[in-house]
Amino acid sequence: MAVSGADARTPVTKTKWNVAGEEMCPHRLVLEHVTSRWGVLVLIQLLEHPHRFSELRRAIGRVSEKMLAQTLQTLERDGLLHRDAKPVIPPRVDYSLTDLGREAAEQVRGLAEWTERRMGRVAEARQAYDEGRAAD
């Protein structure tokens, strides 16, 4: 289905990723959760092995308890991770990936690895952009 763009002569193909409407909200929300600053780091970290809350916080670094707790709860609600609370004193809670979470984490890790490999080109592009802007 073609939708007219800014230029009525140039049709824009309607896809599930560029539709503005209610039907896209669930996709975008999950994408936002998986690719959020802390979501990415949690998923990648849990690929290695299950972690306790404090282990995750130390491994990730610079994340507040509140943000980590919110991120874990969101990813658990989306079915990406499992929270295993053991009835011991002091309480012990382990977080691990579900099969769905492992699948998402592998995708995110691929993007993170690509970013690491291409950081030199990104730095060059940033420098060229900044120099071009300074010349204006």
UniProtKB/TrEMBL annotation:
GO terms for molecular function: DNA binding. Residues 25-123 form the HTH hxlR-type domain. It comes from the Bacteria. InterPro entries: HTH_HxlR (IPR002577), WH-like_DNA-bd_sf (IPR036388), WH_DNA-bd_sf (IPR036390). Keywords: DNA-binding, Transcription, Transcription regulation. It holds the Pfam family HxlR. PANTHER family: HTH-TYPE TRANSCRIPTIONAL REGULATOR YODB, TRANSCRIPTIONAL REGULATOR, MARR FAMILY. This is Winged helix-turn-helix transcriptional regulator.
